Amino acid sequence: MTMRIVRPFHALAAIALAVLALAALAAAHTVAEASAASTTVHVTEKEFNIKLSTGSVARPGTVTFDVKNAGKVAHDFRIKGKQTRLIQPGKTASLTVAFKKKARYHYICAVPGHAALGMKGVFTVR
To answer: What is the model's pTM?
Structure first.
């Protein structure tokens, strides 16, 4: 009779451990997804170009664009309808954008005439 009590106890303990292990794996996966979905892209602006540290991200999520004006005139940065303030030479600004779907997003310096002189490009969410 003792064996019958011990076996169900071991089975219940094994099930409890399996449930805890699965919960831990699910939590770790969620943390990994959250960090993967939040990215920082470094942007350098000069007369008259914009360089991004990467031109794409692997999945939709939040991207923070850290924009440095390395030029001699004021610039800004616009993507997906959001825009930084006017950035003076030698200064920086940040812009955080939520990308909810895979697509190609055009970015520009919205200072009049700057995009026409080459301050534009495409950022891809894959």
So the answer is: 0.71
Which residue ranges make up each domain of the chain? 1-36, 38-125
- Each residue of 7-59: pLDDT tens digit? 665 655 666 555 555 555 555 443 334 434 589 999 999 999 999 999 999 99
Buried b (16+ CB within 10 A) or exposed e, 15-28: eeeeeeeeeeeeee
Q: What is the pLDDT at residue 5?
A: 52
CATH topology of domain 38-125: Immunoglobulin-like (2.60.40)
In whole angstroms, give the CA distance from residue 68 to residue 61. 22
CA distance to 34, 41, 54, 100, 126, per residue, from 57 (Å): 14, 9, 8, 12, 6
- Asked if 45 contacts 70 with a C-beta cutoff of 8 angstroms, the reply is yes
